[in-house]
Amino acid sequence: MQARCVIISDTKRGHENQSRVLARMLGDSEPLTMLLQPPVREGGPAELMLRLRLRGRGRSALTRRQAQQLVRRYLRPESPVEFRAFAEEVQAQRNELALFTVSTGTPPATFGLVLARMLGAQSVVNMTPSLIPRARFDLNIVPAHDVRGTATPPAKVIVTRLALGFHDRRAAELLAAELAREHQLARSERYWGVAIGGPSKACPWAGDRVLDELAQLHGLARGEGARLLVTTSRRTPPHCLNWLKKHYGNSPQLGYFLDASADPLNPLPAFYELSERLFITGDSFSMLSEAVHAGHVPVVLRVRHGQAPGKLGRALNALEQAGLAVLGDTGAELPARVPPVPARHEPNTHYAELRRAVRYKLGLDEGTGC
Question: Are 356 and 348 in contact (CB under 8 A)?
């Protein structure tokens, strides 16, 4: 049976990207996207009251008419044209389609249940929201750092060690060729990719620690004859950006630099194809996961003195224990933490494993899909 998916998006790129990967696993490479509209925000009156209402009975707490009213009030299609085409397709082929709502994050998951009630669809959620029991959804993709204990997960739960991702190697190679051509990057040279995030509520930075790691990385690259391909993110603070421009800007070790505050390009897929090694700041679980999906074992750049806090710390430790990332001793200098260059793994092995589990749990035909 063909699967068709509706993604509920809060416009956070990291959330929507993971939802698109999940839709791809279900077999829909062109899902419909519905955008949450103000005043919906996590913990806000509208979202919190609805979440509490769904807590007890799930989507059955709403009639279809009530669900339809909420959808009209709080969701809008990203593309009205695609919305009309989707509606016509569903109406014409209803008995031949498996319908799913797909979401990542708390408000999208909340309204994913509402939309599932309206459409009579199954609801698949990545990162189950608080207050709503996982049993209210048809399938939950749960990060390992959100799971306590070693008990076997319930039937509706799949535990994953990585943020959801899929490495499109063909598109990455095209971007790599473009960057190589525009910036005179020779495939015969050694390149190290560097992805710099920024402080967040979950992971505040110790600014001196980050700059020290970057200084050590520059020296390590110079000693090993490698050139650096560097990108910042929209969260990278100005003091770090200014330091990079001053200390990396005119260095012969710098092969490429992108200031994400001024350029919307995401060069990371190209980095994965051009680089023999990846260095990623330890504030971004999604960037680390993305590198692993591309087949690399990234080295974590320390952003704090000591271990990362809470869930993020547990996630990073789990990646290292599984051999998927390199942290090394907390107090050790960067060169001492960097092992010999590991062989690159086949991309998307974790994606393939999770896809099989998702489709099995939902009873989808393994012979269809992407």
Answer: no
CA 194 from chain centre, in angstroms, equals: 18
* Distances 4 to 70, 89, 201, 337 between C-alpha atoms, Å: 22, 10, 35, 46
- pLDDT of 204 reads 92
The pLDDT tens digits for 17-30 are 999 999 999 999 99
pTM for this entry? 0.90
Full DSSP string of 252-293? TTEEEEE-TTT-----HHHHHHH-SEEEEETT-HHHHHHHHH
Distances (CA, A) of 215 to 131, 185, 195, 218: 44, 23, 14, 5
Phi, psi of 182 (to 5 degrees): -75, -25
Kindly list the distances between the CA atom of residue 266 and the CA atoms of 121, 179, 195, 216, 260, in Å, as whole numbers in the listed order.
34, 11, 10, 25, 8
What residue ranges do the domains of the chain occupy? 2-165+350-361, 169-347
Q: List the 97-104 sheet strands across, edge first.
A: 75-77, 32-36, 2-9, 97-104, 122-126, 139-143, 157-160
The tens digit of pLDDT for each residue in 232-272 reads 999 999 999 999 999 999 999 999 999 999 999 999 999 99
In the block, tokens 């959100």 appear at 146
Buried b (16+ CB within 10 A) or exposed e, 272-311: bbbbebbbbbbbbbbbbbbbbbbbbbbbbbbbbeeebeee
Q: Evaluate whether the domain defined by 169-347 bears CATH number 3.40.50.
A: yes
| Residues 301/294, Cβ–Cβ less than 8 Å | no
- CA distance readout (Å), 319 to 3, 143, 326: 32, 12, 8
Q: Where are the beta strands (DSSP E) in 10-93?
A: 32-36, 75-77
Please tell me the predicted confidence (pLDDT) of residue 367.
47
